[in-house]
Specification:
The protein is 36% helix and 12% strand. By secondary structure, the chain is an alpha+beta fold. It has a two-stranded antiparallel ribbon with strand order 1-2. A hairpin with a 5-residue loop joins strand 1 and strand 2. The longest helix is centred in the C-terminal third of the chain and has 14 residues. The mean pLDDT is 90.
Length: 59
């Protein structure tokens, strides 16, 4: 199935892949899942996973 992640979501979370930044640029909008109360932007894991798959095809 195309929507499956390369690895389990818990592995991404343990590695901190979802932790973003407090600075948002216009190009980041599609990668942001939500904003925490402290202003930290959390990244969208399925979108990050998708980009990793694309990068793996290029290599």
């Amino acid at each position: 199935m195309a929507d499956e992640l390369l690895i389990d979501q818990s592995v991404y979370l343990e590695a901190g892949v979802h932790i973003g930044t407090k600075v948002k640029t216009p190009g980041m909008k599609r990668f942001i899942y939500k904003v925490r109360e402290d202003g930290l932007y959390l990244l969208d894991l399925p979108e990050i996973d998708k980009r990793i798959k694309i990068a793996a095809k290029i290599s």
